[in-house]
Design brief:
The chain is α/β, with parallel strands linked by helices. It has one domain. The strands form 2 sheets. A two-stranded parallel sheet has the order 1-4. A two-stranded parallel ribbon has the order 2-3. β2, α4 and β3 form a beta-alpha-beta unit. The radius of gyration is 15 Å and the shape is globular.
Length: 144
């Protein structure tokens, strides 16, 4: 039963934080290649007006109090995986580094830093095949 509960915890985390796991990798992300949409995140036709940021709008007002790393850290000390692109225009590198640092501090405070895996890839806002394979290997490690 304990093994089953561990699987459910990981699956639950993935399902509830899927957009956060990849820092908002929304439905426009290109799977299985390294291309990515290049458009501004504010103004007419942006993610918000096209419905691509619907997940972040499901809890109105939450962003007034919590940012992505805050929401992600709610899952601490459970295992968590975060991938980001060095060339991602939606999530600039300085903000990603700050988010990773904040999350590592929280997992470290809970003696669980070994359960937090963060990685920067030389890609845009995408989740390509290499990233998918690495994520599957990571999941396999925590599903056993």
């Amino acid at each position: 039963m304990n093994h089953f509960k561990k699987q459910i915890n990981v699956l639950s985390l993935i399902w509830t934080l899927l957009p956060v796991l990849f820092m908002g990798c929304s439905t426009h992300a290109q799977f299985a290649d390294e291309s990515s949409a290049d458009y501004e995140t504010s103004g007419p036709g942006n993610n918000s007006t096209r419905g691509q940021s619907a997940y972040t709008m499901t809890h109105p007002g939450l962003s007034n109090y919590l940012d992505y790393p805050d929401v992600a850290s709610i899952s601490c000390p459970k295992p968590a995986l975060f991938f980001n692109g060095l060339q991602d225009k939606l999530f600039p590198l300085p903000s990603i580094k700050d988010a990773y640092q904040k999350m590592h501090e929280i997992w470290t405070d809970q003696n669980a830093d070994y359960k937090l895996f963060t990685k920067l890839w030389n890609v845009k806002h995408t989740f390509n095949t290499k990233m998918q394979l690495e994520a599957l290997k990571w999941l396999d490690n925590y599903m056993k």
